[in-house]
Amino acid sequence: MKSIAIIGAGIAGIEAASRLTKFGHKVWLIEKNREIGGHVAEWAYLFPQQKQSAIVMDEIIKGLNNRAETVTNVTVQHCEKNNGQFEIVLTDNNYLLVDAILVTTGFDLFRAQRKEEYGYGIYENVITSLDLEQMFKNHQVTCKNGKKPERVAFVHCVGSRDEKVNNRYCSKVCCATAVKQACEVKQLYPDCEVYNLYMDLRMFDRYLEDLYHEAQSKYHVNFIRGRLSEAGENKEHQVVLKVEDTLAGKPLKLTVSLLVLMSGMEPCHWQPSLNAKLEIRTDTDGFLSVRDRFTQCNLTAVDGIFVAGACTGPKTIPETLADARAAADRLNSYIMS
Prior knowledge:
By secondary structure, the protein is of the alpha/beta class. It has helices at residues 11-22, 53-62, 129-137, 174-188, 208-217, 271-278, 317-336; strands at residues 3-7, 26-30, 45-46, 51-52, 69-71, 76-82, 85-90, 95-98, 100-103, 108-109, 126-128, 151-158, 193-198, 222-233, 239-245, 250-256, 258-263, 265-266, 305-307. Strands 11-17-12-13-14-15-16 form a 7-stranded mixed β-sheet. A 5-stranded parallel β-sheet has the order 5-2-1-9-19, covered by helices on one side. Strand 14 (222-233) and strand 15 form a beta hairpin. 42% of the residues are buried.
């Protein structure tokens, strides 16, 4: 039996741990937060079929079947490779000796405060997609004063495809999430006017174009191709938007009850500290570097250290789970060879 440390207990770490324990290995699942599950556990419903996140999480966690040793609220303090094994010291002073490491640290949501022109943290009725998802968990969406919104606008690509914040990549899931959330607002409040402000819609996967069509035909969500240039606030604490409609070729002024910012994915802010301890590298966009994106996408430059999930770039939930299984299989072949 071999020993493996998995750093990060989001869905990638959990899925990989489940697979590796079935191979008969001893697995340590290390999580810096108090609870496992990562970002998926924070969500209420998942696109495109609006399946409850809690059900998906239960299915993923069930695969563990208590076979992995889960350690929460700790991080890696020190790591050193000797004689083909890794000596790991955790912040709770626990010591691990393992044959391989799998990094599944995931991503951070872009901090919307960095886009000051949108007013997050300044105006009380500017929220993020995650804030809205927490409201969906409570089955109601309200403004700060407790009233239901009469008009809601979603802004796509907040922190993605944006050279000003040095994030030029697409976060992959934001467009679909915005359309999903727009439909959910209309389900709760059919009379509410809903707007999606987008650069271009990237509904890349099966059923997502159907979701976009349903948003227009069934829920009458308004889609405006344009960039939000500025957000302000009036005396009623409504959010006043200045938008350029690039299809119509004219500026728009829109007053809404709630402004929802679709925060994209970015590398974990604490990842460089872990990278230094493991002696692994990042790419130019800050996500973890792999040996080859086509044939060795789960391997790092260090023999015995593997990667999986959104720590190597934005991924959907199915992509993350598939990547975790592939990494587990590759790691198993490595330690058994």
